[in-house]
Amino acid sequence: MQSSNTIDWFSREPVRAKLRTHIRRLLARYDYPPDHERAAVDLVIRQMETFADEWAPNGRSANC
């Protein structure tokens, strides 16, 4: 039961929205060009999805 709580975090839209906000703030803090922001946020989200499978305790695809 507890492992499913750690697995489902990325599929929830409110969590994804909060992550996008944090990424945008970091990009702004380090003077990332605003016209490239959307592509950078999308890239980071895709990378997080990829690594979430590897970092999950039992593998995300196995528990879904």
SSE layout and pairing:
Blueprint: H1 2-7, H2 13-29, H3 37-55, H4 60-63
Helix pairs in contact: 2-3
Describe it for me?
The chain has one domain (2-63). It has four helices and no strands. The protein has helices at 2-7, 13-29, 37-55, 60-63. It is elongated and about 40 Å long. Residues 1-5 have low confidence and may be disordered.
Helix content: over 70%
As residue ranges, the low-confidence spans are 1-5
- C-alpha Rg, in Å? 14 Å
SSE arrangement, N to C: HHHH
* Count of individual beta strands: 0
Residue-averaged pLDDT: 80
Helix segment tally: 4
Measured by DSSP, the beta-strand proportion falls in under 5%
- What distance separates the N and C termini? 12 Å
Count of discrete domains:
1
Which outline best applies? elongated
Largest sheet: none
Helical/strand content category: mainly alpha
Care to give the gist of this entry?
With 64 residues, the protein is mostly helical. The protein has helices at residues 2-7, 13-29, 37-55, 60-63.
